[in-house]
C-alpha cells in the first residue's frame, strides 16, 4: 500500500471530533479562573477530560498498528524509537509525527476540548509544533527521566510553548504515571538530558534548594481520556511500569502563533526529519498549521473567554 502523508491535509478525516457550531458549544470546554491561576503559579493543570471511550479506542487501535515499525506511513515520523530506554531490561516506545500517519491522530489536533484549553493557556492563536507517543508496556516499561520540554526545543523561539499529555490508559503510580514538581517552571532553563536514561540524571545540574523541591513532587494520576497540560519549563518525569497494565499516552505540543525558527548548529532538533523552517523565519506552513485562529473560531464570543493574561 502507498501511504499518504496526512500532514498535507488540514481538513477533518473522521467523524471523531465534531466541531462546535455556536459559542455555547465552545463554552463547555472552558477552564475556570482558578485553573488558569493554578497554571500560572504551579505550572500545570490536570484531570481535564478531553477524550471519550470511542475516541480512546480508535487511538489505541491506530497506536497498535504504529508500534510495528513495518506499518505503512512509517517514513513520515519525525523521530521513531521502538525502544528509547537505555536500560536493556526496559522498553519505552517514543515517536513524534503520528498525525501524519493515522487519521485519528491527525484529527485529534482539531479536538475542540483541547483547542479551547490550549488557547486559554497560551493566550494566543494555537499553532502545531508536533505530537508525541509515549508507551510503556506492562511489567517492563522504562522511565522518562526528569526534564524540561523546552530544553529540547531551543531551535524555536520565543518560549511560548505548551504540552498536552493525554492518557490512553488509566495512569497511576503503579504503571508509571507522570510526576510534576509544582512551581519548577520558575527555575529557568536547564540543559537537556537523555530522556530514556538515568531518571535522576538532571540532579547534577540543580542547586541544593531545587533538589530539596523534589520532595514536593506530585503524581499526576489520570483516567484514560483525561489530560494534563504543563508549562515548557516545568520539571517532570515518570518512573518504571512494573505493573500488569500498560501505560500508553499521546501528547500534543503547540506554540503561540508567531514563534520563529532558531535552527543553528548548536540548537538542531533531535533528527533531520523535522520539517525545516530557515532560522529567523516564522514557524508555519503545511507541517506547522494554525490549529485555532481566535478571531475566526470564536467570533464575538472571544471577549468572554478568560486566558492566562487575565488572571
Ligand atoms: O509520558 C511520559 O511519561 C513523559 C511525557 C513527557 O515527557 C511530556 O509530557 O513532556
Summary keywords:
binds 2-oxoglutaric acid; 7 helices; four-stranded antiparallel β-sheet; alpha+beta; Jelly Rolls; single chain; 311 residues; 14 strands; 21% strand; eight-stranded antiparallel β-sheet
CATH superfamily: q2cbj1_9rhob like domain
Share of residues in helices? 10-25%
Q: Rg to the nearest angstrom?
A: 18 Å
Shape: globular
Number of DSSP helices? Answer: 7
**How many β-strands, per DSSP?**
14
Ligands bound to this protein structure? 2-oxoglutaric acid
Distance between the termini: 51 Å
Secondary-structure element order, N to C: HHEHEEHHEEEEEHEEEEEEH
Low-confidence stretches: none
Kindly identify the CATH topology: Jelly Rolls
Biggest β-sheet strands, sense, barrel: 8 strands, antiparallel
| CATH level-two architecture | Sandwich
**Mean pLDDT across all amino acids:** 97
Strand content: 15-25%
CATH class: Mainly Beta
Question: How many individual domains?
Answer: 1
Amino acid at each position: 500500500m502507498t501511504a499518504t502523508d496526512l500532514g498535507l491535509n488540514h481538513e477533518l478525516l473522521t467523524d471523531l471530533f465534531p466541531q462546535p457550531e455556536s459559542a455555547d458549544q465552545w463554552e463547555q470546554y472552558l477552564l475556570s479562573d482558578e485553573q488558569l491561576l493554578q497554571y500560572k503559579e504551579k505550572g500545570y493543570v490536570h484531570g481535564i477530560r478531553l477524550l471519550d471511550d470511542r475516541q480512546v479506542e480508535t487511538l489505541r487501535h491506530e497506536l497498535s498498528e504504529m508500534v510495528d515499525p513495518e506499518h505503512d506511513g512509517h517514513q513520515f515520523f519525525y523521530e521513531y524509537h521502538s525502544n528509547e530506554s537505555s536500560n536493556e531490561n526496559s522498553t519505552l516506545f517514543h515517536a513524534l509525527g503520528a498525525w501524519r500517519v493515522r487519521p485519528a491522530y491527525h484529527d485529534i489536533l482539531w479536538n475542540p476540548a483541547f483547542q479551547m484549553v490550549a488557547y486559554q493557556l497560551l493566550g494566543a492563536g494555537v499553532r502545531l509544533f508536533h505530537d508525541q507517543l509515549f508507551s510503556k508496556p506492562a511489567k517492563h516499561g522504562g522511565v522518562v527521566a526528569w526534564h524540561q520540554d523546552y530544553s529540547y526545543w531551543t531551535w524555536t523561539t520565543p518560549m511560548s510553548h505548551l504540552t498536552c499529555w493525554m492518557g490512553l490508559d488509566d495512569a497511576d503510580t503503579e504503571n508509571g504515571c507522570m510526576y510534576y514538581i509544582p512551581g519548577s517552571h520558575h527555575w529557568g532553563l536547564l540543559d537537556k538530558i537523555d530522556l530514556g536514561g538515568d531518571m535522576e540524571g538532571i540532579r547534577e545540574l540543580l542547586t541544593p534548594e531545587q533538589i530539596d523541591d523534589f520532595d514536593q513532587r506530585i503524581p499526576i494520576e489520570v483516567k484514560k481520556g483525561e489530560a494534563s497540560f504543563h508549562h515548557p519549563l516545568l520539571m517532570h518525569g515518570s518512573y518504571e511500569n512494573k505493573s500488569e497494565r500498560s501505560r500508553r499516552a499521546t501528547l500534543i505540543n503547540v506554540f503561540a502563533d508567531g514563534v520563529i525558527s532558531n535552527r543553528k548548529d548548536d540548537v538542531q532538533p533531535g533528527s533531520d526529519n523535522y520539517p525545516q523552517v530557515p532560522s529567523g523565519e516564522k514557524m508555519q506552513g503545511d507541517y506547522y498549521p494554525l490549529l485555532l485562529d481566535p478571531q475566526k473560531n470564536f467570533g464575538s464570543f472571544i471577549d468572554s473567554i478568560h486566558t492566562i493574561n487575565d488572571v
